[in-house]
Target: Exo-alpha-sialidase
Amino acid sequence: MSRRLATAGVVGVAALACVIGTNSASAHDRDGGDGTLTYSVGTPQVDKVSGGPWTLSQGDASYGSTITVDGVTYPNVAVDPSGTGSVPAQSGVTGTPGPLTGYCSQDNGTGAATGSVVREPAGAKLAMQPYYFPYVTSTDGGRTLIGYFDYRPKDTDEAVVTAVSHDRGKTWYYTGEALEQNAGLCADGNTNDDGQGHAFAMSVPDYNGTGKAGEVLYTLSRPSGDNIGVNLIVHKLTPKGDDPLAGLPATEPVGMGGSTTAAAAVTVPAGPTGDGVTISVGSTANFEQPGHFNVDGHIVDCNDASATSTEFTGCTTRDSKGVTISAGDAVTADSVIPADAGQTSGLVSPDGIISVLRHYKGAPKGSVAVLYTEKIVDYYTPTTTTAAVTLPTATIPVADTSALTLSNGSVEVYLGTSGGIQDVTCTGLTATSLTGCTGGAGSVAAGSDLGAPGAAITPYAQLKLTGEGKNKAKTLYGNNEDYTVARVAYTYDGLHFTDLGQVSGLNDPTSNSSTTLRWIGSRGTVITNPDGSYGLFLSGAYAADGDSDAFNQIFYSSSKDGIHWSSPEKLIGTDYTFSALQQQTVNGGALGITGYYSGRVYDPTVVQNGDGTLTMLFAGYSTPKPLPATGSTVGTDANALYTVPAAQAAEYRSILSVTLTPSWTGANR
Model:
């Protein structure tokens, strides 16, 4: 805390069944001999897009040929920097986390973005940013690629965008857009980019019990997703012409479904400029912050600079005349599932559907089986301390122990102190305390997260090398404590699923090692190998990567039954030395291609080409966080650290493509 022309979801996957390149994947060749199928990974390229919404690198026409940010002047050019050697005037630059430079038609350089949201200049072909989470299929052997993408300008907006490519992903042409979260909003740090993401489409034989096949689109309600009981959103696709999204709502915001009432009268000024006002309410629970809500049909955007349990702060309205709120007025968040959409049932805390599992033996005839990701946020921090304690201590008061159990008479938990994460063993539990505790040293503050067995406990000294973690003992130094595993389910109608349980071999959600993946992603591709086995392209990460988004590497795994998978083999990974960025800072010139995915490489989707090669699309960030602070130093190479300069272009949510070339070794031909 995120896509499809009719029939593309199923036909595209089926077309991948002929030849696949793998790392040490045993298979039978066409003549029946045994051999090992291997492949080489080509050089990735940053894809370009034409005709779509605003991009990171199109610059800001109001500035002329140059732009100055934080006292640094650099070219204002609407081109891919790797093609010119120039650093472009991109939306996100270090030191300016918002608003987005050039996103709106008026921007005076002081953070007051107003006017109207602009689009990509006509005729331009620019780096495909900020797009990510690609889902790509083909019905003609890779000559035409049909792509669905998350379009997600940081802290501003999110939408599902489709595009088509005729050159294996090098260039994409916009074909449609739908389900936008914040249409027309010139953001000023007063909202977020949490809309509908992780889109996936497939054909089902009996859509919604109609007796007819249908193409359906699945999305994650990002504000409320990854919690127990939250489902995926389902839309029926009715393509028209080149637009797979025709018929879907152009705008469809989602939220956490909260409702409350205003506690006092207040006049809300028009935004996005200005400091905004404070709105007192009964409760801010189940409202995302920063974010927006509705009052009497008016949209109000609020940041979270000093919000409390009963106050929204920094609030402005999208109504140019302002809005007067009276005490007692209803204040409502957008719903988790929009009124005009359906929702899945039977999937377990789904973060997204990874891929279709064709010919899966565990699914009934006539159904469609899928591999999907179960994800539960903050799973390993189920409670907090209710009073300060000094370790070692026999009793630790907590809010609730219902998620903790004794195993062989004890439970191992983790708490943060100034000395690091402490390992504590307790032999008893009451409803609100752990008893018989031993181990650890130092002071634990009230309100500290308590790590359950299996919690991620990477030291902050390691997390900060890549800009991850937080130097706060109360939050276990910012270790990500989400739970992710892959599961299999099947459906007939696209709405009601039957879960068939977890798969094994891909990751260990409790791992703190540097050799076993802790987290796996929610976008991938499953193909059928020549010997009938499954091949899977997916992304994953170790505990030390610090984030359940699973962006350390793209890997390959195989399986004979779709349940038991081989150990993941890395295909392409991050570069936590950030060498390309470091070299550009020192020497100037074009950013090396690895600089576009040195911090994150994830969300792979694969299509087979007619010549037997594979085209793989994936998403990349230059650093794990989109906008690292100016002057911060990161990197695992102590002799060549990357110090973030002023006005460094933020290369985040970039779409890249690469060719995988298979070959057989040791086969009896």
Q: What stands out?
A: The helical segments are 8-14, 81-84, 460-463, 579-587. The mean pLDDT is 87.
